[in-house]
Amino acid sequence: MNAMVRWDPFKEMNELHKQITSLFDRVLSRRPMTQEENLTVAEWAPLVDISETNNEYLIKAELPEVKKEDVKVSVENGVLTVSGERKFEKEEKGVKYHRVERSYGSFVRSFSLPDDADENKVSAEFKDGILKIHIQKNEKARPRAIEVKVE
């Protein structure tokens, strides 16, 4: 079942502003007109795919090189939150980094649950760097066929 969502032009403008700011932050963090670049670590948030079937919602989050014990999933007041940390590899003696582009550090992603999601029936599994969060739908919210009698 699809819900009708009111279009908010300011939401799109805000998202564009975030993307442009992020782009300029990355460009300005480099030293101008030199061959050497700063080794900066950007903020990051794991990428997600969200899908839906008749019975559940599924959120898949990419968490490469994140340990299971460094990830937390919680649900409170209709909001699902995924948080955790990808730790920077310890610097080894004699190793010189020429470029560090992967992001490290803490992250938090929050998602508002639809009205038909059952907050009490959320499960998560973590395998091969992918976190899968299953959110069951309420029984009463599931579509059902209604027989129409013809007289």
Keywords:
single chain; 151 residues; mainly beta; Immunoglobulin-like; 35% strand
- CATH structural fold name of the domain at 39-88 and 98-140: Immunoglobulin-like
Overall pLDDT confidence: 81
Q: How many H/I helical runs?
A: 1
Terminus-to-terminus distance: 30 Å
Strand content: 35-45%
Assign an overall shape.
extended
CATH architect. name of the domain at 39-88 and 98-140? Sandwich
Q: List how many beta strands DSSP finds.
A: 7
The structural class is mainly beta
Order of helices and strands: HEEEEEEE
Helical fraction = 10-25%
Radius of gyration (CA) equals 21 Å
Strand order in the sheet with the most strands: 1-2-7-6
Provide the CATH top-level class of the domain at 39-88 and 98-140. Answer: Mainly Beta
Main sheet attributes: strand count, strand direction, barrel closure: 4 strands, antiparallel
Give the uncertain stretches in residue-range form: none
